[in-house]
Amino acid sequence: MLKKAAIRLALFYSISIAFILLNLYFVVKKESLIIGALPFVLALILLAIYSFDKILYLIVFFTPLSIPLSEVMYSLGFDMYLPTEPLLFGLLVVFLLKVLAERKFNKELLLHPVSQVIYLNLFWILVTSITSTMPVVSFKLLLTRIWFIVGFYFLAMKIFEKEQNFEKYVWLYVLPLYIVVAYAWSRHLGYGLWNREAAHYVVNPFYKDHTSYGAALAMFIPFLLGFSLHIYKNHKLKFFSIVTLAMLLMAFVLSYSRAAWLSTFIAAGVWLIIKLRIKFKPLLITFISVIAFFFAFQTQILMFLERNSDESSTNIMTHISSMSNITTDASNLERINRWSCAIKMFEEKSIFGYGPGTYMFKYGPYQITEERTIISTNAGDGGNAHSEYLGPLSESGVLGLLTFMLILGMVIYTAVKTYTRLEDKRLKTIILCALLGLITYYVHGFLNNFLDTDKISAPFWGFTAMIVFIDIQSRKALKEKENPGQ
């Protein structure tokens, strides 16, 4: 026994001395501190193997605070968010190894209809990555999408097995968001708190721009409302939720993101529809009627919109009105330019598209002089399609759009069915908040696309996981209630 203890002690000191010497070598000879990170890397690997939930908590916490690699190293030919995406990649590898070794995972989750349509979408992204005009770019996007889904959907589902982890997931994102809000306000004050132009860049480098920041805030506002009004009975927790809600609402207004404001307004309409229990059939008839009305009077509608000369402004009412300005507002006109390019690209490659993630490299030649704006670039390197729907249409063809919309439709259907089935008030509130948070992004996705970032993927797939998990558990509970003793 003493001999084994002596061997372990000798091994410990040998490894420690070797590490110190190696560290000294890299510091003195190579002038690098990289080896000093080794213990932390090893600790993260062990944590991922034996307690992956802690790693996922860490990833969600650092998501609002993550920064692009390009902010640190400018010369690289690729970009990713640090530290979240390397951690997600590591978690993906550990997840695959564990599944292969143990040969088991929650079958109800794997075979759930929402999961099945996610596989369908991933399969088509794979197919169109193979046929892509830029395969390296497309496979990078596919890999990114997979590690977002594995981390924030499949593994998040495992942590939701504990009773209070729905709320924990939300707070793990919201609390560091406090830091981003405080940082943005401290910078905003230097320009004047109501300076609209400053809103575009005061959230850098944490958020790409004010629109992604506004989208994230919009997704969490329903949860803060739910926590303040229904979930928390404890006065301290309720008070803290109300203060946080007030802070996020103020940040939401100061984001000057018209798309986020519009999406929240529509989410409020969805909440009213659910609360009033309006049936699907009249909603469908209304939707079809609105579409038919638009096509029947599209000339008159466009003439009316062209009379609107209100541009983006510090005045909130003018800023809202500028949403429909398609004559002089550069931001709106550039979106139309990008959408027009996406449609032209789809018309040319309607089945397989140009390949996932390739829009920003390929849209340039599709710009026409009449649609170009002061924001447009000759090289056509100004970014993405500004649409979560037209982007896949141009990059992965018609099935790229349809499979993505199938995910959204299945999530909404599952959430509504589960909400009506549930009796537990807490779970009803959580599933409603998750759905409304997602609705804000489903609407926002018509005007912008951020699903290739961790900032939006964390709530997007996390809220989806909440809905699916509650659906599975509620169906189990209903089955046990109907067939006791089985």
Describe this entry's structure for a reader.
α4 (84-102) crosses α7 (135-159) and α12 (258-276) packs across α19. The relative contact order is 0.11. The chain has a two-stranded antiparallel sheet with strand order 1-2. The protein has helices spanning 2-28, 38-50, 52-62, 84-102, 107-110, 113-130, 135-159, 165-191, 196-199, 210-231, 235-254, 258-276, 280-296, 298-306, 316-321, 330-348, 359-362, 390-421, 425-444, 454-482; strands at residues 67-68, 81-82. It is 71% helix and 1% strand. By secondary structure, it is mainly alpha-helical. Residues 30-38 and 319-326 have low confidence and may be disordered. The chain starts with a helix and ends with a helix. The protein has a domain at 111-288 and 380-482.
Itemize the secondary structure elements and their pairings.
Layout: H1 2-28, H2 38-50, H3 52-62, E1 67-68, E2 81-82, H4 84-102, H5 107-110, H6 113-130, H7 135-159, H8 165-191, H9 196-199, H10 210-231, H11 235-254, H12 258-276, H13 280-296, H14 298-306, H15 316-321, H16 330-348, H17 359-362, H18 390-421, H19 425-444, H20 454-482
Antiparallel strand pairs: 1-2
